[in-house]
Amino acid sequence: xxxxxxxxxxxxxxxxxxxxxxxxxxxxxxxxxxxxxxxxxxxxxxxxxxxxxxxxxxxxxxxxxxxxxxxxxxxxxxxxxxxxxxxxxxxxxxxxxxxxxxxxxxxxxxxxxxxxxxxxxxxxxxxxxxxxxxxxxxxxxxxxxxxxxxxxxxxxxxxxxxxxxxxxxxxxxxxxxxxxxxxxxxxxxxxxxxxxxxxxxxxxxxxxxxxxxxxxxxxxxxxxxxxxxxxxxxxxxxxxxxxxxxxxxxxxxxxxxxxxxxxxxxxxxxxxxxxxxxxxxxxxxxxxxxxxxxxxxxxxxxxxxxxxxxxxxxxxxxxxxxxxxxxxxxxxxxxxxxxxxxxxxxxxxxxxxxxxxxxxxxxxxxxxxxxxxxxxxxxxxxxxxxxxxxxxxxxxxxxxxxxxxxxxxxxxxxxxxxxxxxxxxxxxxxxxxxxxxxxxxxxxxxxxxxxxxxxxxxxxxxxxxxxxxxxxxxxxxxxxxxxxxxxxxx
Length: 490
Ligand code: BG6
Hints:
By secondary structure, the chain is of the alpha/beta class. It is built from 16 helices and 18 strands. It has a 9-stranded mixed beta sheet, with helices on both faces. Helix 6 packs antiparallel against helix 15 (439-459), helix 9 (234-251) packs across helix 15 (439-459) and helix 10 runs parallel beside helix 15. The site of 6-O-phosphono-beta-D-glucopyranose has 4 residues, from loops.
């Protein structure tokens, strides 16, 4: 199996929030990996901007420590780390004031013909001010891109406002909205599985698919992110973006090419075709929960409120819902979606559940043919399992058994599985928007999600409690069982 490294020409990556958690935990390790692989060449610069008073050398030491903390032992190699940190610089600047911008401009101006990316790893409240300032001081060239991190607003109105502000300075082709799920290896594999094979596409519709399940389960709790999480909740934090993006990739029509706008056009059609959930049906097709004290990650853990230090909260840490897509392909095929924190396992998977066979030719003693399932595992143990019926081997008459044709990518391909951020950070430099969300997609997703949240707020009901380490409130199990189905693997 080949691992292809195609170097990119030298660039300037400017990271606002360069001393923050995202930069230390994800961005710097990702850039280090690509540097070590030889994709980032000498002459590139990573310029961190923050309010801290740090010299370049102090920032380099901070990065060495971060790489020590967040890289696996085998990935850290001292001479490479030393060479990597030499491309780092730090500029002290006030995102909402005047200090520091001159130095940034001076560092960048002499390289106007170099690809330049501004990564806004800061709160959305600062996006507008930073973009305006970048425009005013002449740092936005045709080769400039801006990367923004979710949350893209907290509802349609605020998302629209963020998009408007960013759009006054950058053209849509320059705006890269990161949804890191799209950078995951298996998520892209989903497209190859669907459109690189002839096998599945003829089956991929309501004639043969009974329903689809998408689960994104985490063992982590809200932990130190309480201040953000308590204003967001699982619907905004996971469903509006990651889960709806997965749903779009499963459900979209074949795009005419693997090109950013062709793919995004098809995803948008799905978002627009989602059957509205709100006042009249929210109660019946959604479940929200909040974890109480229990056990996770091999130890006792506190409940949500205790963990984030509040007396009470109506924020959901779990959502299950039944979505439907109003088009020919998916009529009457429910998509059951669920995500939550403090569940029993960290596990994300998509299950395509096929219909039962129309008629069994086998004697009763052979057993019942279980419907086929295609299980696409995003993490951990990335891979694909196609569950099929076979004859139980050996003597004993005709007996059937359900087995997986198992393709575990980690075992099969001995290559390093890059973190999603690695690919996405470099796609920005390459100017490839395929794995980034377009403005209209983000807004369409909010348009579907907002009425759900409004219905919850209006009902005044508290999220249903569930014990940390369980699969969420029992109502989530009832949601699917009412339809005569069950969550895969529970
Ligand atoms: C982030 C959410 O977008 O995704 C977090 O804000 C969540 O709450 C995380 O923990 C999950 O990402 P991953 O890659 O660990 O599945």
